[in-house]
Amino acid sequence: MASNDDERRRLLDQGNGSNPWYNTATMPTPHYHHPQQIPGYGGVMAMTQNPVQNPALLEPQMSEAHKSQPAGMASMVPGQQMLTKSYSVHAEGALGYLTPLQLGRHELYERVPFTAVFGMQQKERNITKAFASYAADLDTLEQDQIVYSRTNQHLSVDELDSRRTRASLLLMDELEMDAVLVTTPLIIAIFVAGLCQFLVGYNTGVMNSPSSVVFSGHSTLEWSIAVSVFAIGGPWGAVAAGTLVDTRGRRGAMAICIYTFLIGGIIQTTAKNMIFITVARFIIGFASGFSSVLVPIYLGELAPPTLRGTLGTLTQFCLVTGIFVSDLLAFPFATEKGWRILFSVTAVASVIQILCFPFLIESPRWLLGRDRSSRRARHIIKKLRGLRYDHEIEIEVNHFVSASHKQACDNNEENTSSKVAFLAMLMDKQIRKLLVCSLVLQMAQQLCGINAVFYYSTMFFEGLIDSPLLGTTLVGGVNVVATYIALLLMENTNRRTLILWSAGGMFVSSVMLVVCLLGYFSKMASLFFVISFVSFFEIGLGPIPWLIVAEMFEAKYVATAMSASCQLNWVCNFIVGLIFPYMQSSLGAFSFLPFAVVLLFTIIFVIVWLPETKGTTPEELRDDIVRSLSHLMLLSDDGSNENHSSSVGNPIDIEWRRAMDDLKQQEEEDMKRGTYNYGFQPINSNLVEAPELDWQTRITGGAGT
To answer: Who has the most CB within 10 Å: 44, 235, 393, 587?
Structure first.
């Protein structure tokens, strides 16, 4: 018999440093079970404390027959095989199970909204860290029990910390694997959706430079209407998208969006006068508003939870890149002969999207919402996630269905409409307050005057600098760089702090711009303060009003709040686009003063009313996960090396599936013999003590004796 010290080293070093979650041939791993399904347990364990800090949490709920055995090694009815795996029964009676890794992905699906939002990566990482910490504590507790059962000594504090850290890091690596495994169908969807957002940005800035060469002789009113009507089409497109994404499906709605861009691009390219330009701008604005609602939903439902924030960030970069490209193309094409080429980019990009459309997939969440047995949804999930086996697909389907149900405002996702969800938000006093905060920030984002720069900077710079087009291009380039800086700042900075710095910097820039226009500083300094104005916008008021929706609301309210915010944003966008030319002509040097007033009120609002929404800390999330999983029980694995050739995947899946198959077969045999316990017999009856050697052998595989 090996000494206690040798046995401790063997148990701690088992697997030779490999992943403690997956090396199940020699070591138990944490599994979870509804307590009422465990023979011999006399109560329910509420895991609301750290199980490693308080291992005694398990003992009071165990019957006397179990206290002398490791957790899960319950004595069984004579003649039955001793099983140490846990299982659960779905509502329809099917046998189901989740490994710790799958349970972690399940938590991510339920807690991360099905929306791709710029800057949401931090929330995804916090949830991953919280679950990994929780599961690592369970793994550490179980290993401590195994060591104690063999050596009669608990693990030291250093050994517990080392075990917990290793398990946590390895599980985090596995949970974040989805973020780097991208399949071809997802790449195509990202490309098509990204082009939509590129066109939104491109058409935001494309009217900036050619104002003097497109049908020269037009009036200020005609041009301002042509520019601002883009923002009239936006809210109508956002409203239509909210309906069509549900009725026509995400893929069908994407087809509508693409063809709308194509029609608008063709009309704008072949326009005969300003009326055609105005009509085309309305159509393109409609498509842009449509895209602003559709793209975050479509990509959010295709992407795994750990990739949604990244895709939201990618689409935001597509938008600001579109603005920058429109400025760059203005150099060769903003002429009397070349402006039609400038406008044709929209139609060309739409044709490219149409060529990719046959390879575009439907959202599996939408298909499962209409028919939970959809074979098409399962086929798409198989291609989208790169899965090979039916049981893997069914687990992923369960993630989608469960998360959709949890994120539905009325707990019935098939019947949840935007109108119902919006009314539910208004009826809740606390949610109503958050909704008002998000809408006020959307108004501030547009009424601060940012689109006055993107729509009319060339006109504004005339007479101030030698090359207005160069100034506009510099502003567009700085906009892209500032977006990246904003991404870095959002990782570690509070949202209220970013908005205050953003609004404060824009306020100072506006005031200094007025001072420059009054002649107190060089007119070239005005270019610096316009760039400063845009830079401060991008670190706060640009991305935060959208990100704050995903962080402020429960997942079930995010899509509705995002849709309402989008519509109001477009309305305010239209107001600024329409009135700024008149503000400039009537106020002159003071044209940015109204924007400074809006920014001042924004600062006051943020200080007084806006709550901090950077997100719960990993520690708070961990406590929440413990509460949500408090009805689950920690069990041990049997540690056998029995072959199970029908299972695939990592070793923990193989081990788990073997136990599930054994248990299911055993219950079927009991039913045929008429000896199956349907729950009418006391769970503690007819228990006999299993031989000590049996459970020791099952843990160690016969080693150390």
So the answer is: 235
Q: Cβ(295)–Cβ(246) under 8 Å?
A: no
pLDDT (tens digit, 9 = 90+) per residue, 646-677?
333 444 555 566 666 677 777 777 777 777 66
Task: Quote the DSSP letter at residue 701.
Answer: T
**Per-residue CA distances from 216 to 220, 270, 459 (Å):** 11, 16, 14
Spatial separation of the C-alpha atoms in residues 606 and 448, rounded to whole Å: 14
Q: Report how far residue 167's alpha carbon sits from residue 27's, in angstroms, rounded to the nearest whole number.
A: 13
* 588: DSSP letter: G
Q: How many CB atoms lie within 10 A of CB 153?
A: 13
Q: What is the pTM (predicted TM-score) of this model?
A: 0.72
Q: Are 462 and 471 in contact (CB under 8 A)?
A: no
Give start and end residues of each alpha helix (H) in 176-248: 184-205, 220-247
Integer angstrom CA distances of residue 425 from 113, 248, 409 = 16, 25, 9
Phi, psi of 16 (to 5 degrees): 55, 45
Query: Using CA of residue 404, residue 408, residue 413, residue 419, what is the dihedral sign?
Result: negative
Helices of type H across 303-408: 308-333, 339-356, 364-370, 375-385, 390-406
Which residue type sits at 179?
A
Q: Are 25 and 38 in contact (CB under 8 A)?
A: no
Question: pLDDT at residue 10 above 80?
Answer: no
Residues 6+ apart with CB under 8 A from 559: 113, 114, 115, 297, 418, 421
- Alpha-carbon distance of 207 to 165, in angstroms, equals 55
Amino acid at 548: I
215-229 pLDDT, tens digit per residue, is 888 888 888 889 889
For residue 693, CA distances in Å to 40, 69, 690, 705 come to 20, 11, 8, 10
* R_g of the chain computed on alpha carbons: 30
Cα–Cα distance for residue pair 599/23, rounded to 1 Å:
58
Note the residue count of the chain.
705
**Residue type (1 letter), 342:** L
Nearest Cα to Cα of residue 270 among 353, 196, 341 = 341
Do residues 484 and 587 touch, judged by C-beta distance below 8 A? no
Buried b / exposed e along 507-530 (16+ C-beta atoms within 10 A): bbbbbbbbebbeeeeeeebbbbbb
Q: How far is CA 609 from the centre of its chain?
A: 26
Q: Positive or negative CA dihedral for 511, 516, 521, 525?
A: positive
**Do 541 and 502 touch, CB atoms closer than 8 A?**
yes
Contact 425, 432 (CB under 8 A): yes
Q: Which residues contact 696 (CB under 8 A, 6 or more apart)?
A: 149, 150, 705
Residue 40 has pLDDT above 80, yes or no: no
Three-state DSSP state, 499: helix
**55-64, Cβ contacts within 8 angstroms, sequence gap of 24 or more:** 55/141, 55/144, 55/145, 55/154, 58/141, 58/634, 61/35, 63/684, 63/687
pLDDT tens for residues 301-355? 998 888 888 888 889 899 999 999 999 999 899 888 889 999 999 999 999 999 9
Q: What is the C-alpha to C-alpha distance for residues 171 and 440, in angstroms, rounded to an integer?
A: 40
Beta strand 88-89 pairing with 95-96 = antiparallel
The set of residues, in sequence order, having a beta carbon less than 8 Å from that of 372 and lying 6+ positions away, is 397, 401
Indicate the SS3 state at residue 530. helix
